[in-house]
Amino acid sequence: MFLEFYGLQEHPFGVTPNPRYLYFSPTHREALASLFYGLETERGFLSLVAPPGAGKTTLLFQLLERLPQSTNTAFLFQTQCNTVQLLRYLAADLNLEPCEPDVVALHSRLNTFLLAQAQAGRRVVVVIDEAQNLCDETLETVRLLSDFETPDRKLLQVVLAGQPELAERLKRPGLEQLRQRIAVSSRLDPLPASEIVQYIDHRLRVAGRLGPSPFSSSALDVIVDRSAGIPRNINNLCFQALSLGFARGCRRIDRDVMQEVVGEPPSVEHSPRVSVAAERGGQRPHAATAALTFLAGGLFAAGVVAFSAAASSARLPASAVPPAPIPVSRAALALPPIRVPDVEPAMATHVVEPDESLRKISVRYVGHVDAAFMADILALNRDITDPDLVTVGQVIRLPPSTLGQRAVYETASDKHQP
């Protein structure tokens, strides 16, 4: 609708959890690092708590994308179910042959499958989204999944994700055994004001925007004030603003447009803008057209997305790598490549010196050997296939704001020190 008008190749503020658009605030990066670290070290149960619309599901898809190809994954979102239904959903998502709808039979089928996967050197990871909707009986069934183990390892890794109610549920005395099994607890917080502006710019760039942001500083002030730092709210406000701006013929979204989006009267100090069409001698879009366009934008932004079970097995493109202090190994670095948008902000570069490797470069910029930092470099320099083989004089692209990110990497690493 407004893509060509604003120089976009695709919708930057859609409602689907596309990992390519995931913006890594410090809390998002830290949460992904913690979850990834927990799965790599086979901790068994992990949890992720976030307010609605904070990007929890998008981050979970990013987490699954980071796992090795040899990992079997299941993504469960049908959480208003009983014990048998949960086990059947799990079996179906793992592509197991149907069996009798009986708890004992389902447990036996899962146990046989998990043992076979372990013998084949494959791991199994299950993500249960919106886990706050599970009843206590079904949560107890989830706890019993920890019984799938051998003397030396867990056969199943489980990530429980949900809204803040999940954390409150786990505090109940009756769920103490499950709470004790959660080895890694992560959370997502709303974006601070400074991160909201960067979040919007990031999504516009990924969507193909070449020029400066169409949102004026005064419009951004309204978004910051009304969104409460929740990405879903930011997306809705931006989508509606672009829809209304397109209907008005305004290539620049100012405070007046945003105030109409949020239902406030125009500011006294801001006179109404003359539309681009009017400035060029054209006619302003008819009021009915503007109203219909705005309504369509609101309906689209408020739409509800139904995820299929097959979505969990899709290897979605990624946009960042978690900065967990994972011991450097080829497996840790051989992650799926990050898809870098065609339009990127200016990046720092490093010229390889004699006797340098990515490990030494990591120490130079981050302060220690950091697998996530090195994987970021590999993603930005796809001609590098071996972290130990770089050429003297080779120009290497570094992650944006490398020096500024040092504190972020160090903060994430400190949390995992013994």
Description:
There is one protein chain. With 418 residues, the chain is α/β, with parallel strands linked by helices. It folds into three domains: 26-187, P-loop containing nucleotide triphosphate hydrolases (Rossmann fold, 3-Layer(aba) Sandwich); 192-301, Helicase, Ruva Protein, domain 3; 345-414, Roll (Membrane-bound Lytic Murein Transglycosylase D, Chain A). Helices cover 44% and strands 9% of the residues. It is built from 17 helices and nine strands. It has helices at residues 26-40, 56-66, 83-93, 103-119, 136-144, 164-170, 176-181, 193-206, 217-227, 231-248, 255-262, 276-279, 287-301, 330-333, 358-366, 371-380, 402-414, and strands spanning 45-49, 72-76, 124-128, 149-150, 153-154, 157-162, 182-187, 349-351, 395-397. Strands 2-3-6-1-7 form a five-stranded parallel β-sheet, sandwiched between helices. A two-stranded antiparallel ribbon has the order 4-5. A hairpin with a 2-residue loop joins strand 4 (149-150) and strand 5. Helix 9 (217-227) runs parallel beside helix 11 and helix 15 packs across helix 16 (371-380). The longest helix has 18 residues, at 231-248. It starts with 25 loop residues before the first helix and ends with a helix. The model is unreliable at 268-347 and 403-418 (pLDDT under 50).
